[in-house]
Design a protein that fits this description.
The protein is mostly helical. It contains four helices and no strands. It has one domain (30-160): 3 helical TM bundles of succinate and fumarate reductases, CATH 1.20.1300.10. α1 (29-59) packs across α3 and α3 (79-107) packs antiparallel against α4 (111-138).
Length: 161
């Protein structure tokens, strides 16, 4: 069977693109490439951080029965665990924000809706990152009153400090 003009298939992407799928040049290719690369790298790092987190919290020591206020307080007394939890918080929030940003870009058709959805996303991301960072670095398990005496709600390990 010989190929005729009627049976040939046009090369992909040679036709005209529907205008509703073309957006302005505001979204630069290099930014999207960096966002794509960030998703891959942060995803790999997050998998490692999550397995370290699960191993240290659930498999070492008393396991899930040992998870309580004192466990977290003791863990956050070490700068290493503060950094690990901070890295996991920041990477997870930025990774998730980038994914939701991509979904908004794909499905929000009107520019105004797209803009406001992304603004809400960015504000929520900043608020959660700032609050999470403050909690990690300002966490004080040993509460005292105005005279410096430990409150009754303080964990038992505070009495030995």
């Amino acid at each position: 069977m010989t190929a005729t003009a009627e049976s040939t298939i046009a090369a992909p992407r040679t036709g005209r693109i529907d205008p509703k799928y073309t957006r302005g040049t505001s979204a630069g290719g290099s930014y999207e490439m960096m966002a794509w690369l960030f998703m891959r790298i942060s995803g790999v790092i997050l998998v490692a951080l999550i397995f370290i987190h699960l191993f240290s919290n659930l498999l070492v020591g008393d396991g899930i029965n040992g998870l309580d206020f004192g466990f977290v307080a003791g863990k956050w007394a070490d700068p290493f665990w503060q950094f690990m939890d901070l890295a996991m918080l920041w990477l997870a929030m930025l990774h998730g924000t980038n994914g939701v940003r991509t979904i908004i870009n794909d499905y929000a058709e009107r520019d105004g809706v797209r803009f406001w959805l992304k603004m809400v996303l960015y504000v929520a991301t900043v608020v959660i990152i700032v609050l999470g960072t403050l909690v990690i670095f300002t966490f004080e398990p040993c509460l005292t009153d105005a005279t410096g005496a430990l409150l009754e709600a303080s964990p038992a390990f505070c009495e030995t400090l």
